[in-house]
Specification:
CATH class of the largest domain: Alpha Beta
Order of helices and strands: HEEEHEEEHHHHEEEEHHH
Largest sheet: 5 strands, antiparallel
Radius of gyration: 19 Å
CATH superfamily of the largest domain: Aminoglycoside phosphotransferase (APH), C-terminal lobe
Strand content: 15-25%
Number of helices: 9
Strand order of the largest sheet: 1-2-3-5-4
Number of strands: 10
Helix content: 25-40%
Length: about 270
């Protein structure tokens, strides 16, 4: 799907395609580099509108995220235009630079988690997310690229059953206090100034909503694992993240639960 003629007529800039994200939406960069456009086909208009609504809700709440500057719906889909967050994705940093940037990345996630969850209209709680996983598995739509290597030959129903065994306990833990989670705080979605090595903001907030903070912690730690060169770097980063977010006694089994659930929710 390409940008609509109506959008091009209203914009004095040219737009060039960039690599699309996990959602499959087409992404374009404005020629001046100060804005991006995300284009969804008709089947994903509701999801893209959800990302727009989350960005609008986050404005002026002290979290560094893109600002919505345009929204266009056409018969073939929809286009969301938002300001660019300066910097490079954390995934592009060397292990040494990522470790230097990590404290400010943790603080930015902490700022999001510290917002008043009672005021957030977006729900990412465990019950409906597990329901989504059930639907993805039932449709045989699990993306094997999102699974750990050891799980790719395991039937999806078995992967779901493994998660379900701990579901009651995780629901009980979630009930003691939810926060506003990013939903997908992986390294490509956290931007960093490559010169100062400070976090400049977070992008791709279509999965934002109230949930157990461990859902974010698990994904951020696991995704960063691909960048570290040593176990010491990984351990130090995890310790910094837990300390910054006020997690005094990290629960490894709880982290593993959310890490096993997430790949089953993307189909």
């Amino acid at each position: 799907m390409s940008l609509t003629p109506e959008l091009l007529q209203r914009s004095p800039f040219e737009w060039g395609p960039v690599v699309a994200g996990a959602s499959g939406d087409a992404v374009y960069r404005r020629s001046d580099g100060r804005a991006f456009a995300k284009v969804a086909d008709a089947a994903r208009v509701v999801e893209l509108a959800g990302e727009r609504d989350r960005l609008l809700w986050l404005q002026d709440r002290g979290v560094l995220t893109p600002e919505v500057i345009g929204w266009h719906v056409a018969e073939q889909g929809a286009c969301l235009i938002m300001t660019a967050i300066e910097g490079v994705p954390a995934a592009a940093l060397s292990a040494t630079d990522l470790l230097s940037a990590w404290p400010s990345m943790a603080r930015q996630l902490a700022a999001l988690h510290a917002l008043d969850a009672g005021q957030c209209p977006f729900d990412r709680s465990l019950a409906p997310i597990f329901g989504r996983a059930m639907d993805v598995v039932a449709r045989n739509a699990v993306n094997p690229d999102f699974l750990p290597d050891d799980d790719r030959k395991t039937p999806a129903a078995e992967l779901l059953a493994r998660v379900e065994r701990d579901l009651a306990l995780r629901l009980e833990q979630e009930a003691t206090g939810r926060v506003i989670c990013h939903g997908d705080p992986c390294m490509p979605n956290i931007m960093v100034d490559p010169h100062t090595l400070r976090c400049t903001g977070m992008i791709d907030l279509g999965r934002l909503g109230t949930a157990d903070r461990y859902a974010d912690l698990a994904l951020m730690i696991a995704n960063a694992r691909e960048s570290w060169e040593t176990a010491e770097q990984e351990g130090h980063a995890a310790a910094v993240l837990f300390e910054t977010l006020g997690v005094a006694a990290p629960d490894a089994a709880r982290l593993e639960f959310y890490l096993r659930l997430d790949p089953l929710t993307w189909g």
